[in-house]
Amino acid sequence: MRLLAAMSGGVDSAVAAALAVDAGHDVTGVHLALSPDRQTLRSGARGCCSVEDAHDARRVADELGIPFYVWDLADRFREDVVDDFVAEYEAGRTPNPCLRCNEKIKFTAVLDRARALGFDAVVTGHHARLADGELRRSVDAGKDQSYVLGVLTPEQLAAAVFPLGGMTKDRVREIAAERGFAVATKADSHDICFIPDGDTRGFLAKKLGSRPGPLVDAATGATVGEHDGTYGFTVGQRRGLGISVGDQQPRYVLGIEPVTRTVTIGTADLAGVDEITTAGPTWTAGAPALPFRAQVQLRAHGRPVGCEVAAGADGGLVVRLDEVQRGVAAGQSAVLYEPDAERGDHVVGQAAIRTAARQRTPDRAATAAD
Amino acid sequence: MTYLDHAATTPVLPEVLAAMTEQLGRVGNASSLHASGRAARRAAEQARERLAEALGARPSEVLFTGGGTESDNLAVKGLFWARRQADPRRRRIVVSPAEHHAVLDSVEWLATHEGAEVTWLRVEPSGRVTPQALAEALGDGSDVAVASVMWANNEIGTVSDIAELAATAHDVGVPLHTDAVQAVGQVLVDFGASGVDALTMTGHKLGGPMGAGVLLLRREAECTPLLHGGGQERDVRSGTLDVAAIVGLGVATVSAVHGRVERAAELRRLRDRLVAGVVEQVPDVRLNGAPLDDVVRSGPGRLPGNAHLSFPGAEGDALLMLLDARGIECSTGSACSAGVARPSHVLTAVGADPDRARSSLRFSLGHTSTDADVDALLAVVAPVVERARRAGMGRR
User: Fold this and answer.
1) Domain B14-257 falls in which CATH fold?
2) Phi and psi torsions of A71, nearest 5°
3) CA A78 to CA A193: how far, in whole Å?
4) What is the fold of A2-185?
5) Is the pLDDT of residue B336 over 70?
6) Is the peptide bond before A291 cis (omega within 30 degrees of 0)?
7) Any idea which fold B2-9+260-392 has?
8) ipTM given for this complex
């Protein structure tokens, strides 16, 4: 096959490209330039958008003897990922920009261009298994990235190659070291690539400015403090609330109301939810018959819980959780899995969370910690 | 492999390889007083004399440097500093916006760090700078430190009338630097006859080694050094001479200049065939720069080996990638250090809109080019352009 390898400059995409070459494919590497003002050198270990990262990717491509280009997708990335990220926070939701990037950039903008240029598929260094059109968790549970790929459609998956899903991250680093890739020991990127200092609240404050509003205690309805903007909060958040309540019990963010800019907080016993409604779902392999039993994961690196999935309002879903969950934020994806210990949990599809609430009696379900 | 990127670099000439290999086997620092040093110095000075003769300069006007970028930096900064020191009112630099980045970024550095004021020259749609435009920009010249206009543009190949521009600058007492990196060996370059005060050239564009260049600097021109040290090269460019590279540069320059007339005619024949063949298959292709048969001062108004074409609706990046996959090597013009393609500053300077600038490719021919190279491009250009246009429609 003619494959386009998306090469971030990190160890995963380097090894993925190498394995694609080994498998006999005709591989061309591209580095996606996603930031309009590219720093020359990395600041810290984060991000994949510096000139140094492009250089790291180019070094690997040259060692593999494959063509290498830099594609400037900064405009698309700003529109589809960064602006969406800011707008979601502004609307009181908690977005997942990595999922959005996979959906809109890697497997839409890049894939469309690749196909038009005569490539059959895009190969990336994501840790997920993909065989016979079935997307499954990586064998490395700690590095599994199936959650941020759950949004892909059958058409997108048909043109995706993930060579790393069957191995651990340690093995990926070993392969890179065996091949003498300088990126073998390069630190993992984490957090959000367009916020290289990790200060999401500061980033949003710059974009949205100060938008003060009340912090309201759910139990009493009393205003217990002020905040500079709802975008500084995520449902389930405990730290950084900037208030102290007399009873010394920890408080959690329970809800965010963007119009009145009200952030509602409450004690742990009020933070749990057992029923979620979602926007319209996407399915990795055609729509299953509703209702069905599944496991659902409610955020990146979250623990999956058993659930029943049924039809909801406006083409969305209702997901009834077997266990009460805390920190379920609107905007995050509920990714649905069909458990399979042998071949890896199968990703069925996903839908963006609209609302989350406690619908059943507290004693029916055990409270799960975060 | 079909190599159509000679303006980026061109294969080393066999006689250069032989001369350099021989010199590399010898010990000797050209600044040493003993026999080995004398032998090294003799080789370097012979190269200097031959190179000077080929370019219409005196040997003492030849300063060896590390290449075109260093020569441009030395000329622009060195002349600016020396002229401003002689008269502090001289803070202005007059320069064309279509210059190579080695000139542009030097000028911008001087503006940021040394208080220079920049006057950008008006550029014709062909890419040429006219004497009228230069005269307007210079005014009475009393506040101008230096002017710089390239002999031939590296992207679109347009040749300016440098002798006329030098005379215009001298009318108001301003020295003119010219970047002739692309011109030497393709058009007649006579330093003395042109009247310019400083001229940049480099070896690897005409069959010599990389990392070896020259600044031709008139003997009376004051130029503040960038590099201080052993006082080599008239105390303007310190550093141990790279004798083997200098020998190679000398051989290459003499070969290129002596064979220029025949080679230019052959390059032009191939280039005209290339352009006509592309036009036949892609009728809406557009030629950037001066017409193919343009004339300046009874010589070519466009480098004979340069074809710079815009393919409406296709991205230069996609075209380059598709051609590369088919073994044809060319260029989109200038890439920034990030490797991210930006619309060419040269095409922007001549008034092209960003879409036209992004949709262009430069094909540049050189001493190893043949009819087979042109045939290879013409065999694939139509489907490549069609495919790139389809990929281009994915943009929004």
Assistant:
1) Aspartate Aminotransferase; domain 2 (3.40.640)
2) -105, 130
3) 12
4) Rossmann fold (3.40.50)
5) no
6) yes
7) Aspartate Aminotransferase, domain 1 (3.90.1150)
8) 0.83
Angle of helix A169-178 versus helix A11-22 axis, rounded to 10: 70
Task: Give the C-alpha distances (Å, rounded to integers) separating A325 from A93, A235, A307, A357, B264.
Answer: 17, 12, 11, 10, 77
| Nearest Cα residue to B311 out of B229, B392, B216 | B392
pLDDT digits (tens, 9 = 90+) for A164-198: 999 999 999 999 999 999 999 988 877 788 888 88
Specify the amino acid at residue A289.
A
Candidates A70, A116, A118; nearest CB to B394: A116
| Lowest mean pLDDT across A215-219, A277-281, A359-363 | A359-363
Counting Cα atoms < 13 Å in the Cβ hemisphere of B62 gives: 26
Q: B226: which DSSP letter? A: S
So where are chain A's domains?
2-185, 210-268, 272-364
**DSSP SS3 for B243:** helix
A67 to chain B: which residues are within 8 Å by CB? 321, 324-325
CA dihedral B361, B365, B368, B372 (to 10 degrees): 70
Angle, CA of A172, A178 and A182, to the nearest 5°: 80
CATH 2.30.30.280 matches A210-268: yes
Catalytic residues of A: 101, 193
Distances in whole angstroms, Cα of residue A180 to Cα of each of A15, A20, A63, A174, B55? 11, 17, 9, 10, 48
- The confidence score (pLDDT) of residue A72 equals 87
B14-257 shares the fold of B2-9+260-392? no
Q: What is the pLDDT of residues A32-50, one digit of tens each?
A: 988 766 555 444 444 455 7
CATH 2.60.40.10 fits A272-364, yes or no: no
Distance between CA B28 and CA B191 in Å, rounded?
31
The residues in A 48-87 lying below 8 A from B, measured between CB atoms, are: 51, 54, 58, 67, 69-72, 74, 76
Q: How much of chain B is in helix, strand and coil states, percent to nearest 5?
A: 45, 15, 40
Distance of CA A164 to the CA centre of its chain: 18
